[in-house]
Write a structure and sequence with these properties.
Blueprint lengths: L37 H5 L6 E6 L6 E5 L2 H8 L9 E6 L7 E4 L5 E5 L3 H18 E11 L4 H12 L4 E8 L15 E8 L10 E2 L3 H7 L2 E2 L6 E5 L2 E3 L19 E3 L3 H9 L3 E3 L5 E6 L6 E2 L3 E2 L11 E2 L8 H11 L5 E4 L6 H8 L3 E6 L2 H13 L2 E2 L29 E6 L7 H8 L2
Helix pairs in contact: 2-3, 3-4, 7-8
């Protein structure tokens, strides 16, 4: 396999017009009608908001009913929130040109914006979300293939191309038997960006299975009985320092360097952590009992949407699984941090954040969404099926990740609404108080 040489800049100095350039890395921007400058967006004047309810032990978590652009503009004036959000996850409309209904057949939200109108709708909110995010914060944007690549260009402009971390592919459903002369659409995508190079990161892992651990760690140390694997002790790229010098009269392979300086390699060898092949080639021993698990990569196959009749859900359309949010929240925040979702929908982000001891801010302009969230907080989730009395076979059950249960009532938050629409919540609050 070929390895690339590290370079600080592209070798060529000719731009796309054939002219000489001192900076061959050209910034790519997206242009469309109606694109506002950032200052115009930040000058947006929101209507006042009013607190309608607060729990006895509110812990800085807030649920807002209103247009998320208005609410974000309001929060941008709050020094306790602006620049303090550790993690943002959003699952915005996908530009599908559809109206989505809940399980009760009530209108949940409209996804009717397309093209330039959709991009500016997203960009306005992303400008404010950048303001909300802490310097060591992260943002995840859940999209499908319809607009994911357009929004990535927006994110490169607003957050910086160097702060792009991953383009995560998620398997959202089981294989489809029906297609229209194309491959089955079973995936969607999550853009992962950070605000800076220094960000909270708790690398997620999956547990080893017996089969995979034996395949991966295929050697057993005779003296200890410990299972291990062998890995190279060199890495791509030449170095002029200690890691580029001989060790045990051996130079690293051409175009490579030792991963550790010679004195560290000596210490590792003294501890029995270096395996020497019959030809004298050193490799490092990695032990199974020191592994935290299988590191999660950027293709997620294990967090599909609800797919059997016994999975507990709210019934809100396009609801995402709690296990997906648990992975993101644990990876990019710590207990006590503030998590924000300005397309709160059924409240999965908020419920999982509460379970994981994070404070949260949720925003949605759908009355059905707010109703669903309040019911979820009071009564929990219901099984997906209407006539289900027994559990399916174990291999058909969707397994939750270890921590997530969402069984407790959630009432340690405040409920706010924009003044111009707060009356819409009167009957919802009356019904909720009776739950």
């Amino acid at each position: 396999m070929a390895t690339g040489e590290e370079k600080n800049k592209w070798n060529s100095t000719i731009d796309q017009n054939g002219a000489q350039s001192d900076n061959p890395f050209f910034e790519v921007t997206i242009t469309y009608p109606g694109k506002k400058n950032t200052q115009t967006i930040l000058s947006h004047e929101p209507p006042p908001v009013q607190r309608l309810w607060h729990g006895a032990h509110a812990n800085h978590s807030k649920l807002f009913y209103g247009d998320n652009l208005d609410i974000l503009a309001h929060l941008a004036n709050d020094s306790a929130i602006k620049g303090q959000v550790r993690l943002i996850y959003i699952d915005p409309p996908f530009a599908t040109n559809k109206v989505f209904k809940s399980r009760a057949r009530k209108d949940a939200y409209q996804d009717l914006l397309e093209g330039a109108a959709y991009l500016e709708f997203m960009r306005e909110r992303l400008v404010f979300l950048y303001e909300m995010l802490a310097e060591d914060g992260s943002i995840y944007i859940h999209l499908d293939g319809n607009m994911a690549f357009h929004v990535k260009l927006l994110m490169d402009e607003l957050f910086g191309r160097s702060n792009f971390r991953n383009f995560i592919t998620r398997r959202k459903c089981n294989p489809k038997n029906y297609t229209r002369n194309q491959y089955g659409n079973i995936s969607d995508y999550i853009l992962f960006y950070t605000k800076s190079a220094n960000y909270v990161w708790n690398r997620p892992h999956q547990n080893w299975t017996d089969k995979r651990s034996v395949e991966e760690y295929s050697y057993i140390e005779k003296a200890t009985g410990r299972r291990y694997k062998k890995v190279p002790i060199h890495a791509p790229g030449e170095r002029n320092g200690a890691t580029g010098q001989p060790w045990r009269d051996k130079l690293p392979p051409p175009g490579k360097h030792w991963q550790y300086p010679p004195e560290t390699l000596e210490q590792m060898d003294a501890r029995g952590e270096i395996y020497w092949s019959p030809t004298g080639n050193p490799r490092r021993k990695i032990y199974l009992d020191e592994s935290k698990g299988i590191p999660i990569q950027d293709i997620w196959l294990d967090v599909k949407d609800a797919h059997n009749q016994n999975i507990k859900i709210t019934g809100y359309p396009t609801e995402k699984p709690a296990e997906l949010l648990q992975r993101i929240i644990e990876a990019s925040s710590n207990p006590g941090d503030l998590v924000l979702d300005c397309f709160a929908g059924s409240g999965t982000t908020l419920g999982v954040a509460s379970e994981l001891k994070r404070a949260w801010i949720g925003i949605d302009n759908s009355l059905e969404a707010i109703t669903t969230i309040l019911q979820r907080f009071s009564k929990g989730l219901e099984r997906m099926g209407d006539f289900v009395n027994t559990l399916p076979p174990k291999h058909l059950q969707q397994k939750a990740l270890p921590l997530f249960q969402e069984t407790d009532v959630i009432n340690d938050f405040e409920l706010w609404a924009s003044d111009n629409i707060k009356e819409n919540l009167a009957s919802v609050l009356a019904d909720w108080s009776q739950m």
